[in-house]
Amino acid sequence: AQSVTQLGSHVSVSEGALVLLRCNYSSSVPPYLFWYVQYPNQGLQLLLKYTSAATLVKGINGFEAEFKKSETSFHLTKPSAHMSDAAEYFCAVISGGYNKLIFGAGTRLAVHP
Amino acid sequence: KAGVTQTPRYLIKTRGQQVTLSCSPISGHRSVSWYQQTPGQGLQFLFEYFSETQRNKGNFPGRFSGRQFSNSRSEMNVSTLELGDSALYLCASSPGQVGDEQFFGPGTRLTVL
Using the 8-state DSSP alphabet, how is residue B102 labeled? Predict the structure, then answer.
């Protein structure tokens, strides 16, 4: 069964610093990978998705992620954090076909002045 | 284009009762998926409906059921509520092909007393 591991349940950065959120997946076939963000009391919003077209994927709000098959990783980065980036971030993989998303446990990002 | 809507947004029930949650997908989307989000278990897939048929199912007891109507609107039902059913229930819609972006609604917060 496919699974997703997010390293670090809490990450804290200073405003303007690099954001790096880690995600590793297990998959026996080329995966569909996603990063979602959740703000308090809201649903999930897609940041970006990997569907094998390119290993470096650019998303919304300045985020990007690089697919590394050899490391089975799909880490999320942003060069310069903003206060508005404070939220919970989820990495997910499609499992079993169609639209069954398997989520990681999430990483809560705090941004301090 | 209107987003995914879920009703009600908040619900309080007592143990043993049953509850029905509703989800209206984005116009033109034929797939609706349901997820349960809890602090302890994170985001877990419940089931997916596509063109009125259940296409995928997660590992939840039979007390959790759903259906989809011809206009793609979906409902999920939980019978004989338990305290552990307290959660945020998220609905997501997509066109229905593998790897399609899933658009999430704001969720229904269910509290079981």
Answer: P
